[in-house]
Amino acid sequence: MRITKLITGILLIMLSVWLLVEGLMNGILGVWAVRNIASGVLEIILGGLFMGAGIVYICLENDPFMGGDITCFILLIIGAIVGFVGCFFNRWMFLYAVISLIVGIGFFVWHRRIGEEV
After folding, report:
1. φ, ψ of residue 89 in degrees (nearest 5)
2. Which of 58, 53, 55 minimizes the C-alpha distance to 79?
3. Which pLDDT band holds residue 114 (cuts at 50, 70, 90)?
4. pTM higher than 0.85
5. What is the 3-state secondary structure (H, E, C) of 14-54?
6. Which end of the chain is more exposed for a tag (fewer CB within 10 A), N or C?
Protein backbone atom coordinates (compact mmCIF):
# COMPACT_ATOMS: atom_id res chain seq x y z
CA MET A 1 0.00 0.00 0.00
CA ARG A 2 2.91 2.32 0.72
CA ILE A 3 4.32 2.29 -2.80
CA THR A 4 0.85 2.56 -4.32
CA LYS A 5 0.13 5.68 -2.27
CA LEU A 6 3.45 7.21 -3.31
CA ILE A 7 2.86 6.54 -7.01
CA THR A 8 -0.76 7.73 -6.82
CA GLY A 9 0.33 10.89 -5.00
CA ILE A 10 2.87 11.66 -7.71
CA LEU A 11 0.31 11.01 -10.46
CA LEU A 12 -2.28 13.20 -8.73
CA ILE A 13 0.24 16.04 -8.49
CA MET A 14 1.10 15.66 -12.18
CA LEU A 15 -2.59 15.66 -13.09
CA SER A 16 -3.15 18.72 -10.92
CA VAL A 17 -0.38 20.61 -12.72
CA TRP A 18 -2.03 19.70 -16.03
CA LEU A 19 -5.42 20.86 -14.76
CA LEU A 20 -3.97 24.15 -13.54
CA VAL A 21 -2.27 24.81 -16.88
CA GLU A 22 -5.31 23.76 -18.89
CA GLY A 23 -7.64 25.80 -16.69
CA LEU A 24 -5.53 28.90 -17.19
CA MET A 25 -4.79 28.48 -20.89
CA ASN A 26 -8.10 27.10 -22.09
CA GLY A 27 -10.67 28.37 -19.64
CA ILE A 28 -9.41 31.75 -18.55
CA LEU A 29 -7.29 32.92 -21.49
CA GLY A 30 -8.93 30.94 -24.31
CA VAL A 31 -5.64 30.11 -26.00
CA TRP A 32 -6.30 26.49 -27.07
CA ALA A 33 -10.04 26.54 -27.61
CA VAL A 34 -13.11 28.66 -27.11
CA ARG A 35 -12.91 30.63 -23.88
CA ASN A 36 -15.05 29.22 -21.07
CA ILE A 37 -14.38 30.90 -17.74
CA ALA A 38 -16.61 28.57 -15.70
CA SER A 39 -14.76 25.53 -16.99
CA GLY A 40 -11.40 27.17 -16.31
CA VAL A 41 -12.26 28.08 -12.75
CA LEU A 42 -13.60 24.60 -12.02
CA GLU A 43 -10.45 23.02 -13.50
CA ILE A 44 -8.28 25.23 -11.30
CA ILE A 45 -10.32 24.27 -8.21
CA LEU A 46 -10.12 20.58 -9.14
CA GLY A 47 -6.38 20.92 -9.71
CA GLY A 48 -5.96 22.40 -6.25
CA LEU A 49 -7.94 19.54 -4.70
CA PHE A 50 -5.85 16.97 -6.59
CA MET A 51 -2.67 18.77 -5.48
CA GLY A 52 -3.76 18.64 -1.84
CA ALA A 53 -4.70 14.96 -2.04
CA GLY A 54 -1.43 14.08 -3.77
CA ILE A 55 0.62 15.88 -1.14
CA VAL A 56 -1.28 14.15 1.68
CA TYR A 57 -0.77 10.74 0.03
CA ILE A 58 2.97 11.36 -0.33
CA CYS A 59 3.44 12.76 3.18
CA LEU A 60 1.42 10.05 4.91
CA GLU A 61 2.40 7.08 2.76
CA ASN A 62 3.79 5.07 5.67
CA ASP A 63 1.18 6.10 8.25
CA PRO A 64 -0.70 3.07 9.66
CA PHE A 65 -3.68 5.19 10.70
CA MET A 66 -6.56 6.30 8.51
CA GLY A 67 -6.30 10.07 9.00
CA GLY A 68 -4.64 10.66 5.65
CA ASP A 69 -7.05 8.38 3.83
CA ILE A 70 -10.05 10.11 5.35
CA THR A 71 -8.63 13.51 4.42
CA CYS A 72 -7.98 12.44 0.83
CA PHE A 73 -11.38 10.73 0.68
CA ILE A 74 -13.09 14.01 1.56
CA LEU A 75 -10.90 16.04 -0.82
CA LEU A 76 -11.49 13.67 -3.71
CA ILE A 77 -15.25 13.40 -3.10
CA ILE A 78 -15.41 17.20 -3.25
CA GLY A 79 -13.29 16.97 -6.40
CA ALA A 80 -15.76 14.49 -7.90
CA ILE A 81 -18.64 16.86 -7.18
CA VAL A 82 -16.73 19.72 -8.82
CA GLY A 83 -15.94 17.47 -11.78
CA PHE A 84 -19.55 16.40 -12.25
CA VAL A 85 -20.67 20.03 -12.12
CA GLY A 86 -17.94 20.95 -14.59
CA CYS A 87 -18.89 18.25 -17.09
CA PHE A 88 -21.69 20.52 -18.28
CA PHE A 89 -19.03 22.95 -19.51
CA ASN A 90 -16.21 20.58 -20.46
CA ARG A 91 -16.54 16.90 -21.34
CA TRP A 92 -13.13 16.02 -19.90
CA MET A 93 -14.24 17.05 -16.42
CA PHE A 94 -16.34 13.87 -16.26
CA LEU A 95 -13.16 11.80 -16.65
CA TYR A 96 -11.45 13.76 -13.88
CA ALA A 97 -14.49 13.25 -11.63
CA VAL A 98 -14.42 9.49 -12.21
CA ILE A 99 -10.67 9.36 -11.51
CA SER A 100 -11.30 11.28 -8.31
CA LEU A 101 -14.01 8.86 -7.20
CA ILE A 102 -11.97 5.76 -8.03
CA VAL A 103 -8.86 6.93 -6.18
CA GLY A 104 -10.67 8.38 -3.16
CA ILE A 105 -13.05 5.51 -2.57
CA GLY A 106 -10.48 2.90 -3.59
CA PHE A 107 -7.85 3.85 -1.03
CA PHE A 108 -10.40 4.39 1.72
CA VAL A 109 -12.00 0.98 1.18
CA TRP A 110 -8.61 -0.71 0.75
CA HIS A 111 -7.26 0.72 4.01
CA ARG A 112 -10.53 -0.08 5.77
CA ARG A 113 -10.50 -3.62 4.38
CA ILE A 114 -7.06 -4.52 5.67
CA GLY A 115 -8.32 -3.52 9.11
CA GLU A 116 -5.64 -1.19 10.42
CA GLU A 117 -6.22 1.07 13.39
CA VAL A 118 -8.16 4.30 13.03
Report:
1. -100, -30
2. 53
3. confident
4. yes
5. HHHHHHHHHHHHHHHCCCCCCCCHHHHHHHHHHHHHHHHHH
6. C
